Amino acid sequence: MTLMRHHGGGIIVLTFVVALILTIVPVPEWARVARPDWVALVLIYWCLALPQRVGVGVAWLLGIIEDVLTGTLLGQHALALVVVAFLALKLHQRLRLYPLWQQSLTVLVLLTLNQLLILWVNGITGRPAQSWLYWSPSLAGMLVWPLVFTVLRNLRRRFAVS
Q1: Cα distance between residue 132 and residue 66, in whole Å
Q2: pTM above 0.85, yes or no
Q3: What does the pLDDT average to over 72-92?
Q4: What are the structural domain ranges in the chain?
Q5: What Rg, from alpha-carbon coordinates, does the chain have?
Q6: In Å, what is the CA distance from 132 to each residue of 33, 120, 136, 138?
């Protein structure tokens, strides 16, 4: 049995660091409601592209880091990202065959589920309900998915991440 050598782990980590930075960078109030969940988008991409390397454990770790960075309840984002990663891993063979517009619709469902789980945890802890604008980051994520997919695919190919 030959051991496969994995290349490009630094690129994967770098993309997650950039996603975390984009999550906490200050934006104007009007743009805050349309900020996509960058961490979830990058996680979905790597779960689809390299399911043997990026999975539920990485999702949990990213969720804990995101909770610490955003000051939310510890484990809130971790739970949501673990569920999203699990579903992306379960569907990865099917999703990779979809055209980009169908992938965008699936990403919309995954991001909406992500936000629904976060809203559920907020409801359990007694935080006030959000307005309908709460769901706009899912739509923004669907719209930027083709760009995220293209940029990350080009990075993966350029640096031979396997």
Answers
A1: 23
A2: yes
A3: 96
A4: 36-154
A5: 16
A6: 10, 15, 8, 12
